[in-house]
Amino acid sequence: MADGPTNHDDGKFDAEGFELDDVTDIYDMGDLDDIDADLVVVPDEPSDHRGAFGEYGGETSAFIERSFREKIILVGVTWPGQDDDDTEASLDELALLIDTAGADEVARVAQRRSGADPATYIGKGKVEEIRVLAESVDADTVVFDDELTPAQQNNLEKLLGRSAIDRTAVILDIFAQNAHTVEGKAQVQLALLKYRLPRLRGKGKSLSQQAGGIGARRGPGETQLEVDRRRVSRLIHKLEADLRQIGHHRDSQRKARRRSPFQQVAIVGYTNAGKSTLLNRLTDAGVLVENRLFATLDATTRRLQLPGGETVLVTDTVGFVKKLPHQLVEAFKSTLEVVAEADLLVHIVDASAPDTEAHLNAVRVVLGEIDAAEVPELIVFNKSDLTTESARLVAQHPGSVAISAVTGDGIPELLAAIGDRLRALTNVVELMVPFDRGDVIAAVHREGEVLVETTDEAGMRMRARLDDAASARLAEFVVG
Length: 480
Ligand SMILES: Nc1nc2c(ncn2[C@@H]2O[C@H](COP(=O)(O)OP(=O)(O)OP(=O)(O)O)[C@@H](O)[C@H]2O)c(=O)[nH]1
Ligand SMILES: [Mg+2]
Hints:
- This protein is α/β, with parallel strands linked by helices.
- It folds into 3 domains: 215 residues, Rossmann fold (3-Layer(aba) Sandwich), CATH 3.40.50.11060; 165 residues, Rossmann fold; 53 residues, Alpha-Beta Plaits (2-Layer Sandwich).
- The protein contains 15 helices and 14 strands.
- The strands form 3 sheets. Strands 6-7-5-8-9-10 form a 6-stranded mixed sheet, with helices on both faces. A 4-stranded parallel sheet has the order 2-1-3-4, sandwiched between helices.
- A hairpin with a 2-residue loop joins strand 12 and strand 13.
- Helix 6 runs antiparallel to helix 7.
- The site of magnesium ion (MG) has 4 residues, from helix 8.
């Protein structure tokens, strides 16, 4: 292929896609029989970083180098129907993502376009402008705010003479850094390999030149790129199988949850909104809280007793973001099942964030992708200690609540609202059962969840959550 840009935007494999070194670095090729706790290895050795995908010497697994703080140029495009403020807001967030990944923004460039250039995403003149800028600020990497096609990425790296990556790669990078459990690592790894597969390049040291491993042999007439692609596809299948294995365990957990009489509440929201802080405030979960994006990747569930006496299960899970890579949504689907299966979503919104509505909508987009759009939602504006916006936001969103998970402000109101919402979703009945009807008292305990039980002269007064069939059967004891 000629050195200049090509004009294909078909997302097919490019003959000069990424080298496979990075794939071998992040995946332990030696032992594929078990999920290895060290799947995601971020090598310590420093390397001169001029190409996260190998072309310019990058040898590491991560897209952004960690041995020093990379200097990064951000590039955003204003599309029809958007204004420059939208682009700035999106780039502000990209800057935050880059900071989380351990690098520094040194410049940003924006362009208005009616559509992406199939070969270079932005215009060729703009690319040259960025190349000159990158020289002058000695930038290591240029990050584009939208997902680039493999061809665009390849062309841009060549034209810019340094690594060109996209928002997806930055988010994948952060997830890889933050994955700690075996399942979390495998999920991130799967997303990474799916992202890399169409971006493989035929040149350079290949997987098949490594000693050992499966499927490395090159068949007659098979190109190195074909071998490498086959190899990565196998890794993907292997990871999917491993994750299914882990999924069996999850299935039994899920069955247990379904059998349990407790209703399930899932805390969802934009990353850094305060989900984990809230779980910690409500229970003694001791979940990691950090002022950093995607601090939480794994789900944590705790019991919580509501003021009305009900016990519920509350789960804190991974946060969402605008343009959350579809590979990640897919890979985390099993973790996020708990959200789709919840009785109620507590949707935490950072009221101090500049664009709360955009955050709300981005979260709803992801909820739709994980089949959780129909789960009832209680909107909670958090960080009321930092902003005066909360009251206005609550007024705009009827039924919502304002809290500060840090100071505890509004928590009693939140608990009451959760109880009200859950009660509205199920039957809570009052029963008066004579003391000589121990069989009935036992039946209520067996078939429902007893919320409150008090004795008075006439017998046992019970407030219980019962399904329609049970409350019909016990109708003669139902009062009020
Ligand atoms: N001032 C203030 N800070 C808060 C509040 N709630 C959370 N924070 C801070 O916001 C940051 C993020 O909190 P987390 O609880 O980790 O947020 P999260 O939603 O779990 O974030 P991820 O797991 O990264 O998606 C931390 O620095 C918290 O201390 C609040 O009510 N007020
Ligand atoms: Mg968290």
